[in-house]
Design goal:
single chain; mainly beta
Amino acid sequence: TVNGGIESGKQIIDKFVDSSGQEYVMGVEVEILPDELLIEVLGWDTHFKTFAGLTAENPILIGTEADLRLLATAVNGGKTYSGKYFKLNNDIDISSAAWTPIGSGTLAEPKPFSGIFDGDNKTITGMHFTTTGGFKGLFGVVSGADTEHKAEIRNIIMKGKGDGSYDVEVNGVTKQSGCGAIAGVVINYAVVSGCDSYLHMKLAANSAGIIGAVDNNNQGAVTYPKLPNGMADVIVEDCHNYGNIDANPVTNFMFNVAGIVASNMGIVRRCSNHGNISSLAGAKPFWQMGGIVA
């Protein structure tokens, strides 16, 4: 908020005070229109209170559980972070409460994470939740803006409690559901790479060790997602699942569970599954289970 007596035009803002009373030193030039009291400073992130994130060399650092949950709050509130860079700089334990995924919504009306998130081969431990539908994972919904602004999720290691109980439990599905350690669904223009999961999971339809579903957001006839240059618009590569998966047959139709991606409409390459994948109810028609994809 700018003092009502400030002159319009270009001004140097040395500091400002947010609604909590916290002062921030700025030293940047902004342009204030006549009679305007509230301004937006380009590049300033109001959630993380920083100018970082504009380049890979100066990312927004995620070092605590609070930081990671703050990212979920921002994205689920509608901030996509397209073109913004994030990086884990610590191993993080998020076991204090059931996890709320980063990104939410439906295929038709998503609230996706659209930025670049580098886990830097750090470990996120203790993610746990029980769900009966929707898109769930560390990230719920991931989608890039376009071919020039792709979403990227890379180099994250997910570990669970390690006590034999389920870290993730899916006990139902809705019309649009997907669950994975890294993401529930990846829609468009995205690359997920170098991610490993050790979670013990009980999964239902469109669920897998890494990503539940890769979907090109086609609301009509299903088509293979391709860019003008012929490359699929979602790539999953160099990801590995080490956790055991129990397939939970909550429906009698189109049941698919896999080690890497359950429902795939993109490219999956150089991925491997090392966990056991078992059905809790034997085999029935239209059930699909696979080590890599289903």
